[in-house]
Write a structure and sequence with these properties.
The complex is a heterodimer.
Chain A: E1 12-18, E2 23-26, H1 41-48, E3 61-66, E4 74-75, E5 79-88, E6 94-104, E7 109-111, E8 119-122, E9 127-135, E10 140-151, E11 157-169, E12 172-180, E13 192-200, E14 206-215, E15 219-223, E16 226-229, E17 232-235, E18 242-243, E19 248-257, H2 259-265, E20 271-283, E21 287-292, E22 296-299, E23 306-312, E24 316-318, E25 323-331, E26 338-344, E27 350-353, E28 358-363, E29 368-377, E30 381-385, E31 388-392, E32 397-401, E33 405-410
Parallel strand pairs in A: 4-11, 24-33
Antiparallel strand pairs in A: 1-5, 2-3, 5-9, 6-7, 6-8, 6-10, 10-11, 12-13, 13-19, 14-18, 14-20, 15-19, 16-17, 20-21, 20-22, 23-25, 25-29, 26-28, 26-31, 27-29, 30-33, 31-32
Chain B: H1 29-33, H2 39-51, H3 106-109, H4 111-121, H5 127-142, H6 148-158, H7 186-194, H8 197-202, H9 215-223, H10 227-240, H11 256-271, H12 275-282, H13 312-324, H14 328-353, H15 359-383, H16 387-400, H17 405-419, H18 422-438, H19 441-453, H20 455-469, H21 473-486, H22 488-491, H23 494-507, H24 511-523
Helix pairs in contact in B: 4-5, 7-24, 9-10, 10-11, 11-12, 11-13, 12-13, 13-14, 13-15, 14-15, 15-16, 16-17, 17-18, 20-21, 21-23, 23-24
Classes of the chains: A mainly beta, B mainly alpha.
Chain lengths: 418, 538
């Protein structure tokens, strides 16, 4: 055994123990039947064992709590709890004891001690106890610095420090995906769906207590992760209420722009802030963790200066029979009045009826006009409507609109109600 | 997640054997008229039965069909009462409608004549009748379904008088001890290191040599928790049987007693946590289905006796061992096979014995065995951390063993706590209260009293843990120490000592002394099976 020459013998000893939640003791049940050699002995041994459950000795999961035996893992969002004990190992009374606990991270230093006042005196074999809690908000290296200063009976001032280093790991992996709903044909607003994929990257199962989306000021949010069944709100995840390590779950939210912002919604450009996810989870014996993502952003699909959307279109049409659609053309710019010319180009399956190349008249900024168009399809099946061209006469710029919508074309033998 | 059993059941043969009618052997009459003598007559009785036609082991062409009734994974719901008699249940009637195999389940048909004869002799102190009823219990206990290959070999063995049988060595069980040493006493070793030779010398525990070299001595060692010594003694007794160290792979024979010894040795190894050692010695036993593990293999030693020599609990042990070695899926597979056989035998027993006096006992036995298997499966799923399936399985156990409902509901509550699902845990704990209130007066009181039997340790231990989390180390220590001192015989338990030593280490640099005190307390009371790791002296 190595003996390091002590730099200085201290009268007080500092001990630190992380207080992760305790675990439940498990047994190994071994039984036999009466006719077997041991007879009732095995069962008697299990009954006498105080760690088994009375009346259900074969049940492996006991009721006794066992203290944590090692530091374990700590994850971002969890609470770091630790027991700090200063014990008077000597046989003299020690005075003016001050215990300070700080947490040093890569970016800051926090004071964690509950009280900053010095303890007047500490008798031999007595101790000063403190339990500190801290919600961990950073990933990476953390150092718990415990400093003890005291005065001996002789009046000598003493001081020592201890360092405890630990790593904070990332508990969850969050991926988000945005989906644009097909425009609601009766209103100008656009719905955006957010799919959040959350993966448990810890080593123990996690119970997701709450995952919610806090929307930004522009949107209202509806969560789509529970279903009403017999009056009760039932989670779409059913009986699988927890996430095993490496499991992923998808949460779905629907965002609708608020009325005040509705007009702008049709012409929102660039990056918009949608909101942030608030995730609360629990692990062993209720150990709580909480995380919020940063503001989630969405790149609005570019509409350019001119936007063409469909107001009305039938689902199914007859082969080679003309049908009508209604388009809405919006001037998305804020200052320019536009002079637009509409051209219709035929494709191999879509044939436009009407005059191509006509002028649509002046269109003021942020306003729109509706246009009725007639066309027919010469090919059966699901056909894509393409071939509209809008030319801005002033800028001499042409916007092409292809694959605006789909329509199902059936043979006229099957009569379609028009 | 639970794989379906790979246990292959033979398909029904097209040609059914002619219904086996139970007829008394012509020589029976000689027993009915004369005064009954004891043992010699009994063996004559058995001999004559083995040559009569109704035991189909002598008929190599007996049908190989097994009953189609396959229970689902969950425990069967409720039994038919013994009063509902199956109309076909009378001596001499065949039960071809239930599809009971005549070959492998003959054991269940043959009780017919015995129960009839038993009825004749009922109430007498006749040793002959006692011998009959004893064999009835054996039959019930040892009932098992051998696999097809094994069945063929057993059939061949029974018809040996017509042709010699060669059994491939691969199909034989040839076990032997795999480690020879005296297990030692970890407590004494620690004492030598920390308390000195004098103190160590004072430690007196029973070892394999200090007890009677018999089952009696073995039971002594087990009950005073000197399991290492017990493992040793088993080893000696097995060596006397010719299956000692180095004997693995050598031809041998098995008896009821030798298999019980193996069971005890392996069970104690598991209790001691020596899983690898147990696996090594289990190896020779294969799937516990080899022909030489059946009574039929030894027609001269066990004339007329049918069934498996392997104790049912050994099958459970064999299955559970795998989960402690990190192969829980293998455990589940094995448990599933055991459960399938149990269900089949139970179903066959049901249909063949309804209305007979032994019905109730048989039903009870197989019900409890099914319950035991279900319990094992639930525990295994818990170990695998498949909490959803584990909870479902524990519900199945509640259906099997309704008297344990409060404890099992509480257990499921604790599982929810472990996941972090506090709300569900609360629901279960409330359910427990409701259930305990529902129990009838006396039964409810007994339950409450039972829960108080060893109340102090668990509750006090947990209270002490809570005190620590509140920052009250000294109070916590006081509580635990008082507990341990109050009844050290009972309360020097591994988990409590783990907590105690952890707190000693937190408290001061003088933890070593305190731990040594604990060692002294342990030394004078605990057997050699004590898990010294909890003292943290290493």
């Amino acid at each position: 055994m190595e003996v390091n020459p002590p730099k200085q013998e201290h009268l007080l000893a500092l001990k630190v123990m992380r207080l992760t939640k305790p675990t439940l003791f498990t047994n190994i049940p071994v039984t036999c039947e009466e006719k077997d050699l041991p007879g009732d002995l095995f069962n008697q041994l299990m009954r006498d064992d105080p760690s088994t459950v009375n009346g259900a000795e074969i049940l492996m999961l006991g009721e006794m709590l066992t203290l944590p035996q090692n530091f374990g893992n700590i994850f971002l969002g969890e609470t770091f709890s630790s027991y700090i004990s200063v014990h008077n190992d000597s046989n003299q009374v020690v005075k003016d004891i001050l215990v300070k606990a700080d947490l040093q991270t890569s970016s800051q230093r926090l004071n964690l001690s509950a009280s900053n006042a010095a303890v007047a005196e500490l008798k031999p074999d007595c101790c000063i106890d403190d339990v500190i809690h801290h919600e961990v908000k950073e990933i990476g290296t953390h150092i718990l610095v415990c400093a003890v200063s005291y005065t001996t009976q002789a009046g000598e001032k003493m001081y020592f420090r201890k360092f405890f280093k630990f790593q904070v790991l990332k508990p969850l992996d969050v991926k988000t995906k945005f989906y644009n709903a097909e425009s609601d044909l009766s209103s100008v607003t656009d719905e955006v769906f957010l799919e959040a994929q959350i993966q448990n990257i810890t080593t123990s199962p996690m119970f997701m207590e709450k995952v919610s989306l806090e929307p930004s000021i522009m949107y209202n949010v509806t969560e789509l992760n529970s279903v009403s069944q017999a009056g009760e709100c039932v989670s779409t995840f059913g009986s699988r209420a927890y996430l095993q390590p490496m499991d992923t779950r998808q949460y779905l939210y629907c965002l609708k722009p608020k009325k005040e912002f509705a007009e702008k919604a049709g012409i929102i450009k660039g990056v918009t802030v949608i909101g942030k996810l608030d995730i609360v989870w629990k692990t062993n014996l209720g150990e709580r963790g909480r995380l919020q993502t940063s503001q989630l952003q969405r790149m609005a699909p570019g509409y350019g200066d001119v936007r063409l959307s469909l107001e009305a279109i039938p689902d199914t049409v007859n082969l080679e029979e003309p049908f009508h659609i209604t388009c809405k053309i919006t001037n998305c710019s804020s200052e320019r009045t536009m002079d637009l010319v509409l051209e219709m180009c035929n494709t191999s399956s879509i044939h436009w009826c009407g005059i191509s190349g006509r002028q649509l008249g002046k269109l003021h900024p942020s306003s729109s006009l509706c246009l009725a168009l007639t066309l027919l399809s010469s090919v059966q099946g699901l056909q894509s409507i393409s071939g509209l061209r809008l030319t801005d006469t002033f800028l001499k710029r042409t916007y092409e609109y292809d694959d605006i919508a789909q329509v199902c074309v059936v043979s006229s033998a099957i009569q379609v109600e028009s | 997640m639970v794989k379906s059993p790979s246990f292959s059941s033979a398909s029904e043969t097209a040609a059914r054997t002619p219904p086996q009618v139970v007829q008394p052997s012509p020589s029976l009459s000689k027993f009915f008229g004369d005064t009954i003598n004891t043992n010699s007559l009994a063996s004559d009785f058995f001999d004559s039965f083995t040559t009569s036609t109704f035991i189909s082991v002598s008929n190599p062409n007996a049908g190989a069909s097994v009953p189609e009734k396959l229970s689902s994974l969950t425990a069967p719901a409720g039994e038919t009462s013994p009063d509902s008699t199956d109309p076909s249940c009378s001596a001499g009637a065949e039960r071809s409608e239930s599809g009971v195999s005549t070959a492998s389940l003959e054991i269940l048909e043959s009780p017919k004549p015995f129960s009839q004869i038993q009825a004749v002799f009922a109430g007498s102190d006749d040793p002959f009748a006692t011998a009959l009823s004893m064999s009835e219990m054996d039959r019930r206990n040892d009932a098992w379904l051998p696999s097809e290959g094994t069945r063929d070999i057993l059939t061949a063995v029974a018809t040996q008088q017509y042709s010699t049988v060669f059994v491939d060595k691969e199909n034989l069980t040839m076990p032997g001890l795999r480690f020879d040493n005296i297990q030692g006493d970890a407590v004494k070793d620690l004492m030598l290191r920390f308390l000195g030779e004098k103190a160590a010398a004072k430690r007196q525990v029973l070892n394999a040599s200090s007890v009677e070299q018999s089952f009696v001595g073995l039971k002594q060692l087990i009950s005073c928790r000197n399991w290492r010594a017990a493992v040793d003694l088993c080893g000696r007794l097995l060596a006397a049987h010719g299956q000692g160290y180095g004997k693995s792979g050598l031809p041998t024979s098995h008896t009821t007693d030798s298999l019980q010894l193996w069971f005890v040795r392996l069970a104690l190894l598991v209790k001691l946590g020596l899983f690898q050692n147990a696996e090594m010695e289990f190896e020779s036993f294969g799937n516990l289905d080899q022909p030489d593990l059946y009574y039929e293999y030894y027609p001269h030693v066990y004339p007329g006796r049918r069934g498996s020599m392997v104790p049912f609990s050994m099958r459970i042990l064999h299955a559970e061992l795998q989960q402690y070695l990190g192969n829980p899926q293998e455990s589940l597979d094995r448990l599933h096979r055991v459960k399938t056989v149990c269900s089949k035998v139970r179903a066959a027993t049901h249909s063949s014995l309804t209305g007979c006096p032994c019905f109730a006992a048989s039903v009870q036995l197989w019900r409890s065995r099914l319950g035991r298997v279900t319990y094992s499966m639930a525990n295994c799923l818990l170990l695998m951390k498949d909490y959803v399936l584990a909870v479902e399985a524990y519900h199945a156990v509640i259906r099997c063993c309704p008297e344990q409902e409060p404890q099992l509901l509480s257990g499921i509550g604790r599982i929810s706590l472990q996941i972090g699902d506090i709300k569900t845990a609360e629901k279960y704990f409330q359910e427990v209260e409701k259930v305990t209130q529902k129990l009838d007066g006396p039964q409810g009181k007994i339950m409450v009293l039972m829960n108080r039997k060893c109340p102090s340790l668990c509750a006090n231990n947990n209270a002490a843990v809570c005190l620590l989390y509140l920052g009250k180390l000294k109070d916590s220590l006081r509580q635990l120490e008082a507990l341990v001192q109050r009844d050290p015989g009972h309360y020097l338990h591994e988990s409590v000592l783990f907590n105690l030593t952890t707190m000693y280490e937190l408290e001061s640099s003088r933890s070593m002394q305190k731990k040594q005190c604990l060692l002294e307390a342990v030394a004078s009371r605990e057997g050699d099976s004590f898990n010294t790791q909890c003292l943290k002296l290493a």
